[in-house]
Automatic annotation (TrEMBL):
InterPro entries: Methyltransf_11, SAM-dependent_MTases_sf
Organism the protein comes from: Micromonospora andamanensis
Domain Methyltransferase type: 59-154
Protein name according to UniProt: Methyltransferase type 11 domain-containing protein
Transmembrane segments: none
Gene3D superfamilies: Vaccinia Virus protein VP39
One Pfam family named in its UniProt record: Methyltransf_11
Length: 257
């Protein structure tokens, strides 16, 4: 296996190591009162991306501790959460509680999904697997498991954030720190490998997988949003007020004619 294609193993190891700390950061931000997208908690109720969820078969790609998956289930969806990290799934299982709808948890890789073709109505990645998988592999794989008419929603960082952030850091600046055209794979300072594409690259990748882009949503965070204390508050507040961090791709598998 070459260094360029071992990202699955590296990400699994990194997420197993970081899982406990990640849950502490989420706890510090407080439980959102509703279904929200991205790091800065953009309200699904306001954005209305998913539509009616009752009775829908929904796949959460990179579900982590399944906080998101459980809220989808609260909305009446039949939810399967898949995650490469066994430790994240330990947190997911521990968070299950009586009286709330169950979520099926699967330890698996979004680049090789252990599901039959056309199994789901909706697939979502909320800063999940699609931020850590090669989009050229994971997008066609997500498209494969969607039914005709099914929806894929990918919330990840913006290509602009990538451009403004040095390869070995997480904190963006106000100038361009990397090239645009070679945007793809980036080993980060946490041991993970992240992926990003230029805007045109995402559109081409969705189209090659037979998916139609319905929207690219670039929400602005609430100015009072909680910024975790390990991040530089002023830098992040300035950046978030001026440039898009979380972006949400809403794409659909066409219905058969
Ligand atoms: C930033 S966490 C987000 C978790 C969750 N979606 C949330 O909103 O809290 C990213 C998750 O993606 C998972 N992940 C990374 N690569 C993956 C892959 N190839 N297949 C499945 N899950 C993966 C990680 O293990 C981790 O739990």
């Amino acid at each position: 296996m070459s260094a360029a294609d071992d990202h699955g193993r590296r990400n699994r190891r990194a997420w197993n190591r970081m899982a406990d700390q990640y849950q502490e950061i989420l706890a510090e931000m407080g439980a959102p009162g509703e279904l929200t997208w991205g790091w800065w908690r953009h309200s699904e109720h306001q954005l209305d991306i998913l539509g009616e969820l009752t009775g829908r078969d929904v796949l959460d790609l990179g579900c982590g501790a399944a906080g998101w998956a459980r809220r989808l289930a609260d909305h009446g969806a039949n939810v399967v959460g898949v995650d490469a990290s066994a430790r994240q799934l330990v947190h997911a299982a521990a968070a299950a509680c009586a009286g709330r709808p169950a979520v099926a948890l699967v330890n698996g890789d979004a680049e090789r999904l252990p599901f039959a073709d056309a199994s789901f109505d909706v697939a979502v990645s909320n800063w999940g697997a699609l931020s850590f998988c090669d989009p050229h592999v994971a997008v066609p794989e997500a498209a494969r498991v969607l039914r005709p008419g099914g929806l894929l929603v990918v919330c990840t960082s913006s290509p602009i954030y990538w451009l403004c952030t040095p390869p070995d850091a997480d904190q963006p600046g106000a100038d361009l720190r990397r090239g645009y055209f070679d945007m793809h794979r980036s080993p980060g300072n946490t041991g993970t490998v992240r992926f990003q594409l230029p805007y045109g690259g995402w559109i081409q990748t969705f189209a090659a997988a037979g998916l139609t882009v319905e929207a690219l949503i670039e929400p602005t965070p609430d100015p009072d949003t909680v910024i975790p204390k390990h991040l530089d508050q002023d830098t992040w507040r300035h950046w978030l007020a001026n440039w898009p961090f979380d972006v949400i791709w809403k794409v659909r598998k066409p219905t058969r004619r």
